[in-house]
Design a protein that fits this description.
This protein is mainly beta. The chain has one helix and 45 strands. It is flat, with a radius of gyration of 35 Å.
Length: 450
């Protein structure tokens, strides 16, 4: 028999559980118990309120307009031609006193653009002033700052309210130039022309250009006039390349492809001619590690050129060439891959589906499915093909896979361990050993890297 005290405790516990259940049910839709009912905007006698689906009025019909996100308590309320922000329980978040109010980046629901006395400013949800309302307009820029305009001038202010660029004659900012994570210059627009200004409002490149691009890697500016003449400037408006070209592509400062009189050539950043203007098409293939080579087309024939304009291959018949690892060109012809060195010497003919350098001296290549091993001279090192060849340490051994089992070969292609293992593991530690795994058993097959 249950004692009275126990019955009393059970009754209290049951009552609490029912009360909690009722609270949850009140917050959800009767039609869908899993869906929270935040209410919806409704009108009555030309006034707006917020009403739940069961008819409960949670915001009275007293506003000329309501809009926004009820679930996040970001509700714009208009009354007597003034706008503010309220919650879904009709609490005032931002006083209803502004001419305009809208959410603005960087964090859409944290910053508000307000208009008061016909001037714009920025506040947060605590009505703290971030930017005083003294500007003709304010916009958010993707480079992480606000653009402000006032009396025909433009400036930049960050989201903490700190000035990044003093007001300068103009009406827009195209880009911020950051150095060491600090903005130093801004490409700005004035009277539909672009120029460069520093953070103190000092104009370093006058707004004379139809377009102005910043080449981040080389800290220079590509300027284009309204007559479509191209040149390159530094941040002090010094001409590095004169405004005489029809096109400029900066790949590296020492090898810049330019177009003049409808022909392409190459100059360096000091405008010294490296490759003459005699090509109908010209592009540079380059990397910081490997340097540059150029592919030029003239009289219907493509050539591979060195940096002095001398042809390495006078008739380049490949559909495409690209740098791969170890300063080699992957060539493509009729959807087959080959390999070529920087001097135009063919290492592997175009007959492969996959080609991959796996370290500084070896290449794996597959014609159909399985792989073979080659050196960088194109010499075949393995007569046998494998499902997989993988580098497991830097200079001695390669893991191979055949019939879904693993073994070892050395860098000369000689079979060291038959493929009988489920897995090959290299432990780069004190013993620097290679292990073969069969089932749950791990066997040391190479000790001390030998």
């Amino acid at each position: 028999m249950i004692k009275p005290k126990v019955i009393l405790v059970l009754f209290i516990f049951s009552s609490l559980m029912m009360a909690q259940t009722n609270e949850v049910m009140e917050a959800t839709s009767p039609n869908n118990p899993g869906e929270v009912d935040f209410g919806e905007f409704q009108t009555k006698n030309n006034k707006y309120g917020i009403v739940k689906k069961d008819g409960t009025v949670i915001v009275p019909y007293e506003y000329d307009s309501l809009s926004g996100d009820i679930s996040r308590n970001r509700i714009k309320a208009i009354k007597k031609n003034k706008i503010g922000l309220i919650s879904s329980s009709n609490e005032i978040i931002i006083p209803i006193k502004y001419q305009e109010l809208e959410f603005i980046q960087p964090h859409y629901h944290d910053f508000l653009k307000i208009r008061d006395k016909n001037k714009y400013g920025i506040i947060n949800l605590q009505e703290k002033v971030i930017i005083t309302n003294e500007y003709d307009d304010i916009r958010w820029h993707k480079d992480n700052f606000f653009i402000v305009t006032k009396n025909g001038k433009v400036g930049a202010i960050d989201k903490k309210g700190t000035s990044l660029m003093k007001l300068t004659k103009g009406n827009d900012i195209q880009k911020a130039i950051w150095k060491n994570r600090i903005p130093k210059y801004f490409i700005f627009k004035s009277d539909d022309k672009f120029g460069l200004v520093d953070i103190n409002g000092n104009v370093s490149i006058p707004p004379l250009y139809f377009k102005l691009y910043y080449w981040n890697d080389y800290d220079v500016y590509n300027a284009i006039t309204s007559e479509n003449k191209w040149g390159v400037l530094d941040e002090k408006n010094n001409e590095l390349l004169p405004l005489i070209y029809e096109r400029i592509v900066i790949d590296q400062p020492d090898f810049i492809v330019v177009k003049k009189n409808n022909k392409y050539g190459v100059v360096d950043i000091k405008n010294n001619l490296l490759i003459p203007f005699e090509y109908d098409k010209l592009f540079t293939i380059s990397s910081k590690k490997c340097g540059s080579r150029h592919v030029g087309t003239k009289d219907g024939t493509r050539e591979l050129l060195d940096n002095k304009g001398l042809p390495l291959i006078k008739q380049l018949n490949f559909d495409n060439i690209n740098f791969v690892d170890q300063c080699l060109f992957e060539t493509r012809m009729n959807n087959k891959l080959g390999l070529m060195d920087m001097n135009g010497k063919i290492i592997l003919k175009n007959k492969f589906k996959v080609i991959k350098p796996i370290n500084s001296s070896r290449i794996i290549a597959s014609e159909i499915k399985n792989f073979k091993l080659f050196d960088f001279k194109g010499s075949l090192l393995t007569d046998e093909e494998f499902e997989e060849i993988r580098n497991i340490n830097s200079s001695q051994y390669l893991s191979i896979k055949k019939n879904n089992k693993y073994g070892l070969i050395n860098f000369e292609g000689k079979l060291i361990k038959e493929p009988v293992y489920d897995k090959i593991q290299w432990k780069q530690n004190a013993d620097n050993s290679i292990y073969g795994v069969i089932g749950i058993k791990k066997i040391k097959i190479i000790s001390d890297g030998k």
